[in-house]
Amino acid sequence: MQSRHVLELPNDLGAIERSIEYLLERCRDVGFDEAKLRLNLRVGVAEALANAMMYGNRRDPGKRVVLEAWCGPDEVRIRVTDEGHGFDPGALPDPTLPDNRARTCGRGVFLIRQLMDRVEFNDRGNSIEMVLFRPQDGRRAAAAS
Amino acid sequence: MAFEVTKQGEVTVLDVEGQLIVGNRQELKQKVLEELENGERRFLIDFDRTGYIDSSGLGVLVSLSKKIREQGGELRLANLNDDLRTLFELTKLDTLFQISSSRDEALSSF
């Protein structure tokens, strides 16, 4: 069983948690792995939505964020698109380097890359697509990369 | 998120219930900074009832740690669940904080 969902969200940080809970339920409905939903999917969607609202749309309440999801028992695919000008995801510093560890920001995309199985940005840099696969036997849920 | 502030000897203990995320991180930051301004120097944040911390929440903890240290104080963390511990390990923030597996262990480490 598979399902597709499209949510057009206001540029409001309060909408993030509600959207995540909705998506988690839809993914549970189709039987996707609970541990990967609880940590990996939650982190991926939360960070992507927060980045879209704060940095992509620059907190502009007149803008929207589109969250698309394809949920299946073996694979969950999520796309988050904002109305901003985009950014260069290759230019982000590694927050785990000793000089960067005490920085107060810059961990969102890093966590997405660590916890989602596949991550791609569009050329403009205002849309991120993330995929999670059903975990292999014996594989830790968190060890997506 | 809700949080409760108690005093255990010289340690200000903050219990965080729910999620520490982009939408509410400033509430915790504000409270800790108030206590710091009031002269408190030893802080323990207990995550026993915390389900999730996002990258903004992690950033606030880093910021608070710096501010407390600048005032000659200490911030310690306790009771991270497996998911939270994974986030600290992935970001290597486990090397920046002293993290205890229980509240008692954290309190006795000051």
Describe this structure in words.
The complex is a heterodimer of chains A (145) and B (110). Chain A has three helices and five strands. Chain A is an alpha+beta fold and 145 residues long. Chain A has a single domain, classed as Heat Shock Protein 90 (2-Layer Sandwich). In chain A, a hairpin with a 3-residue loop joins strand 2 (64-71) and strand 3. With 110 residues, chain B is of the alpha/beta class. Chain B is built from four helices and six strands, in the order ββαββαβαβα. Chain B starts with a strand and ends with a helix. Chain B has helices spanning 25-37, 55-70, 82-90, 103-108; strands at residues 2-8, 11-20, 42-46, 50-53, 74-78, 98-100. Chain B has a single domain (2-108), classed as Transcription Regulator spoIIAA (2-Layer Sandwich), CATH 3.30.750. The A-B interface holds A 13-14, 16-17, 38-39, 42-43, 46-47, 50, 54, 95-96, 101-105, 107-108, 110-111, 114-115, 142 and B 19, 21-23, 52, 54-56, 58-60, 62-63, 66, 83, 86-87, 90-93, 95-96.
